[in-house]
Amino acid sequence: MLPQTERTTPMTTTTRKPRRMARPSTLATASDDSAGAPPDKRPTKQNLVLDLLQRDGGVPLAAIVAATGWQNHTARAALTGLRKKGHAITRSKNDGETRYAVTMSVAP
After folding, report:
1. Strand partners, 101
2. Residues in a beta bridge with 99
3. How many other β-carbons are positioned within 10 Å of the β-carbon of residue 58?
4. What's the mean pLDDT when you consider all of the chain?
5. Closest-CA residue to 56 (of 104, 101, 106)
6. Is the pTM higher than 0.70?
7. Distance between CA atoms of residues 95 and 98, nearest Å
8. Beta bridge partners of 89
9. Sheet of 59-60: strands edge to edge?
């Protein structure tokens, strides 16, 4: 058996960072005046597209691409997504330009 030797350097303990706690809730409390009011919708690109589609005569795909910064295939996919959410989107072609418009929207 080997003899026990004393340690010349003290054992160092690693210190851990304290755990981060969840952020306090920012939801309205029951005593708040806005407790019964619905939260404001934040502006999204889909809402922007929906606003564009509600214009008289509709909007060409190029205008949707310019307003959102999306590529053509992404803008068309957004139109498909709006259709799946229940919006009736029509497509018309005048003078070689395809225009899209909402004829009926679902209730928010």
Report:
1. 90
2. 60, 92
3. 20
4. 81
5. 101
6. no
7. 8
8. 102
9. 59-60, 97-104, 88-94
Strands 88-94 and 59-60: unpaired
Alpha-carbon distance of 71 to 90, in angstroms, equals: 20
Domain ranges of the chain: 43-104
Lowest mean pLDDT among 31-40, 45-54, 71-80: 31-40
Into which CATH architecture does domain 43-104 fall? Orthogonal Bundle (1.10)
Tally Cβ neighbours within 10 Å of residue 75.
21
Residue that wins the pLDDT comparison between 93 and 20:
93
| Token couple for 75 | 């803008």
Report CA 105 to chain centroid distance, whole Å. 20
Any bridge partners for residue 94, and if so which? 97
Q: Where is pLDDT greater, at 1 or 100?
A: 100
